[in-house]
Design a protein that fits this description.
Layout (H helix, E strand, L loop, with lengths): L3 H13 L2 H6 L7 E3 L5 H14 L4 E8 L17 E2 L1 H10 L2 E7 L8 E7 L1
Parallel strand pairs: 1-2, 2-3
Antiparallel strand pairs: 2-5, 4-5
């Protein structure tokens, strides 16, 4: 069972990824969002809910890419920088029953990469 802190963090993450908005307004599908301030657990929770609420949705996500896994902050934070490998992003997608497609460089001023999460 999730503890209250995890539920609160998960709720913030869901709002951050606009999952509720996607559920309520299908016009918000295929919109880019940042996962650069979220823990793997929060991202996985958001993706699993998105897979149920809007299975046809494709979620474009920006992230800071690294070659090797790093220790990220323990809780989501608007000013903390989270870094992920491509493999970690693909594993988060697989855990939620989705697939991850790496898009890569897209001209972000701070070097964030782009990827897409979609139904299998």
């Amino acid at each position: 069972m999730e503890n209250a802190a995890a539920q609160t963090a998960g709720a913030r993450g869901v709002r951050r990824l606009r999952v509720h908005a996607v559920q309520q307004d299908r016009r918000l599908r295929d919109r880019p969002v940042a996962v650069t301030h979220l823990t793997p657990e929060t991202i996985a929770l958001c993706l699993s809910r998105l897979a149920v609420w809007s299975p046809a949705c494709r979620l474009y996500a920006t992230f800071f890419e690294v070659d090797e896994p790093v220790d990220n902050p323990a809780a989501p934070h608007d000013h903390a920088k989270f870094r992920y490998t491509r493999a970690e992003m693909a594993q988060l997608a697989a855990t939620a029953g989705m697939r991850f497609s790496y898009i890569g460089e897209w001209g972000h001023p701070r070097g964030q990469m782009m990827g897409a999460f979609a139904a299998r």
